[in-house]
Structure formats: structure tokens, C-alpha cells
Design goal:
This protein is an alpha/beta fold and 144 residues long. It has helices at residues 2-17, 125-130, and strands at 29-32, 38-44, 48-55, 63-65, 74-83, 92-100, 104-112, 132-141. The protein has a four-stranded mixed β-sheet with strand order 1-3-6-5, with no helix packed on it. The protein has a four-stranded mixed β-sheet with strand order 2-8-7-4. The longest helix has 16 residues, at 2-17.
């Protein structure tokens, strides 16, 4: 029975590693956006890409994918965070990683709910004013 338990534990570790939030080492082509900005993204089919936004959780940033785009155009892989390495309180970047699938277009919205806590709803006037979206207009073209 111990052998079966070990196999199940190993399977669980592999399964957990493949889901959202797993550490991916290939961000692909990185497109940087910001709150209040629209960024155009053009790719060929099969390309991996990331949508990057500046992030500093210590001051209240909390980025999230508003909705998963049409999976026929772009499939969502994971959300990753990288620190600028400046120690506690330093900022960083959040990456939303995707694969370009088939030719088409998709609009991907990332929302920064500033100092919203777990409710994802701005708690006051400052939070409403500092919250906002970064919009990415993605066009996937047939590689040829």
C-alpha cells in the first residue's frame, strides 16, 4: 500500500505543477501594458506570449484576468510573478502567459483592484480612483 500511496502523491505533485499559478520558465514574447493603456499584440499561430503589468502588492496592487479569452484564439496557461529583487516592499511584474492558437482576434483585459482585499471590490474613493484595467488587443495570424 505504501507504494500506491507514493505513486498517488507523485501524481498529485505533477498535477498541481501543471495548473494555473505554476512556475513556467518560458514567458514567450512579452507585451507590457499598464492601467489605462491599450496595447496591440500581433502574433503567429503557435507562439507563446505573456501580457505583463507592473505590480507591487505591498502598496496594494492586485492584478487579475477579467475573463479567459476565446480559447480558439489564445489559450491561458498561468499567472506568474517576478520581483524586482529590491527586498521587502519592492515592486515587480505580473505575467499572464498564453499560447496563440488559431487566427483571429481577442481582447484580453487585466484588472488591477487597488487595495481591494479579498472581495475584489474597491473599498473607498482612493481604491476606486487607483483601480483600473490594462487592455490588450490580440491578433493571431497564420504563420506562413
Amino acid at each position: 500500500m505504501i507504494r500506491g500511496t507514493a505513486a498517488l502523491a507523485a501524481l498529485a505533485l505533477v498535477t498541481v505543477g501543471c495548473g494555473a499559478g505554476s512556475a513556467v520558465s518560458d514567458f514567450g514574447t512579452v507585451f507590457t501594458g499598464a492601467k489605462g493603456q491599450t496595447t496591440r499584440v500581433e502574433l503567429g499561430t503557435g507562439q507563446r506570449f505573456s501580457l505583463a503589468v507592473p505590480d507591487n502588492a505591498s502598496v496594494g496592487d492586485s492584478w487579475a484576468l477579467v475573463a479567459v479569452p476565446d480559447p480558439k484564439v489564445a489559450s491561458y496557461i498561468s499567472e506568474e510573478h517576478e520581483s524586482d529583487g529590491g527586498g521587502p516592499g519592492s515592486g515587480g511584474t505580473t505575467y499572464f502567459v498564453f499560447n496563440a492558437k488559431r487566427p483571429g482576434t481577442a481582447e484580453i483585459r487585466l484588472h488591477n483592484c487597488w487595495r481591494c482585499g479579498t472581495g475584489r471590490t474597491p473599498s473607498g474613493a482612493d481604491s476606486v480612483r487607483e483601480s483600473g484595467e490594462a487592455i490588450f488587443r490580440v491578433t493571431v495570424k497564420k504563420r506562413g
